[in-house]
Description:
- The chain is α/β, with parallel strands linked by helices.
- It is about 40% helix and about 20% strand.
- It is built from 22 helices and 21 strands.
- The strands form four sheets. Strands 6-17-11-10-9-7-8 form a seven-stranded parallel beta sheet. A seven-stranded mixed beta sheet has the order 18-16-15-14-12-13-21, sandwiched between helices. A five-stranded mixed beta sheet has the order 1-5-3-4-2, covered by helices on one side.
- Helix 16 links the parallel strand 12 and strand 13.
Amino acid sequence: MSSEAVEQYAVALKAGQRYYKNAVTRGVSPYPPVLDELTQGVSLAGQADLGVINIPTELIVGTKTAGRVFALAGNFMPLLPQNSEFGAKWVALCDAHLSEEGIRDPIRCYEYFGLFYVQEGNKRASVLMSYDAPGIPAQVTRLIPRYSDDEQVRLYYEFMAFYALSRLYSVRFRRLGDYARLQAALGFAPDYVWTEEERRRFASGFALFKTAFAKCSPRAPEVTPAEALLGWLDLYPFSTLRELTAAQIYQQLDPIWTDIAAKHGSAAIHVSTEPEVKEQSVLSKLLHVAHADRMDLAFLYGFDPETSPWTRAHDEGRLYLEQTMGEQLHIQVQHAYNHDYLNAIERASENGAKLIFATTPSMIADCRKAATLHPELKILCCAVSKPYTGVRTYHTRNYELKFIAGVMAGIMARGTPIGYVANYPIFGVPAEINAFALGARSVDPDARVLLRWTCTAGDPVGELLEAGVRVMSNRDMIRPDSSRSVLELGTYMVGDDGAPIPLVTPIRHWGKLYEQIIHSVFSGAWADIERSKSAHYWWGMDSGVIDLSFGSALPAGVRNLGSLLRRDFTYGSVSTFRTEMRDQEGVLRHDGSETLTPEQIIRMDWLCENVDGEIPPFEKLLPMSRDTVRLLGVYKDSLPPEKEAPQL
C-alpha cells in the first residue's frame, strides 16, 4: 500500500464529506441516485448493448442498484474511513492506477437519458474521478424510454439519433433541433456517419473550446459547452479552431456570451418602445454644443437606392439627418451590393465611423463579427427582434397602423370579405395581420379577412379579386413619396371600373428614428442600457416614426374616426391587443385582462379566428424568400438546418 494512494484516499474522503455536508444543508440527498429506483414503474421501450466505449466521467451520476450506495457521496467520492473494507479496496485500486499496470478492466454501467449509472466498478470509477480523469472505459447498456410527446423524451431520441452518427456522449443540448443544427454546422448531411478521424478532430477542437468556455460559464452556469459551441459556430467555422489558442477563442466567445446566455433563457433583452432621452446638465449641454461635430456615422446599404425602394427609404432617412443635423454629423455611405458587409463595416471604421446603421436584416451576422472585433463601435441593424450583444436592432411597430387600417377597411367593406396581402412569415407580421383583423372586427363583428402571401406561388391580388374582395391591405408604403403602383400601397378599395382607390397609406419616417437614436447617444441614454444586454428599438406612432395618410375617398365621418384613433395611438391611450383573442381553432389566446408584452407581440405565431388563410410552411415558400424566413421566420427555430461546408 503506497503512501501516495493513502494520501489520495484522504483527499477524496474530504471531498466526499464536503459534498455530503453541503447536500444535507441544502436538504437534498447526499448519495448518488439509484437507477432501479428512478425507473421503477416506468414503461421502457427496450434496451441496447453499446459495447465497450469511453464514457465522460462528468456524466457518471449514480449507481444501478442500492447496494453500497451509502459508501459514496453524490460526487462519487468515498464516505467510509480508510480502514474500512471499502477504503482498503479503494486504496488498492489506487495503487494499481499509479502503477505501470493501471486500471484496465472496464466498468459496467447503464445509460439512461444520456447519464450513466454504475453496476460494477463503483470504486474504480471513484478512483479515476478523484484524479479528474476525463473518461473511463465502460461496458454500456442503454435503457430506452418509450417515445412520447414529452419534450425530454423527444430530445433524448434526437440525442440517440445523433449518437448513432457521431458516437459522442460529450455533446449535450437542452433544446430540440440543436443536434441536427450541429450536424449541419459541421458540414455533414443529416444522415452522415462520422469517421473515426472526424471524431478525433472534433474531440480535439471541442476540448480546446471548452477551455475557453470555462472562463465564461460562471456567468451562465446552466449553458452547456455544446450550446456555447453552437452559438460560436453562428459566426466562425469549426475548422478555425485548429488555428486558434484557447485565449484567442475566449476573445471571440466573450463578446457574444450574453447572446448565448439569452438564447437559453438566462439573459434579458431590453426592448425600447419609445425614444429614451436623458436630461442633461448645463455643463453637458455646453460640451454637447462644443463637440457636436464629433459624431461620425455610416450607413451600410446592401442594395442600390435607385432600384430598391427599401434602401431608398433608408437613404431618404440619411438625407433627412443631413438636413436637420448636418452640422453635428459627418455621414458616410458604404455600399455592399456583393453582400460583403464585414469589409464594408471595416471601411466605415477606418474612415472614422463610430455609429453604424446596417439597413437590412441579412447584415446581422457580419455586424456581430464586427462587434467582436470592434467593441468600441455602436452598431445597429434594421430587423425585428433580432438583437445581440454589441449589435442593437431597430424597427417600427407597424401593427398600430394596421389596426387603424383594419377599422377603415371594416367600415368600407360593408360586410364583404376583406383582403390582406402579407410578404413574409417573419417576426411581427402575424401581429400586424391580427391587428388588422381586430380593427375590422371592432366595427363589424362578422368581418372576415382573406389572407394571401407574396412569398408563395400564385397571384395574391388576383386571387382576392376573384374571391369577391373589393377592399384589401397590400404591401406597405415605406416612404411618403413612393412612385410604386398604388396596388402596393397600404389599404385600398377597388372601384366599379376596377381602378384602385387609396384609403389608408402607412408611412415610415426612418429619418426621425435615426435622429432620435443619435440624440440618445448625445444625451447619454444610449450608455444607460447595459452593454451586457441585447437591445431592440421598437418605436410606434407616439415617437413620430410612423404615421398614416387617409385617402380622399374615405367619407368625412370615417376619416374623422381614423384621425381620432391616430391621435389616441400617438398619445398612447389605446392598446391594440387588450381584448379577447381566439385563434383559428377557437383556442383562447388572450383574455384581454392585461396588455401583451412587446415580446409576446413580436413572437406571435398564430392567427385570429376571423382570418381565413394560414402562415405558409417553409416548403411552400418561393426559393427567393427562404433566406429571409430562415433568419427571421416565426418558426425559424423548428426549421431543418442547412448543411454548411465540411468543417472536419
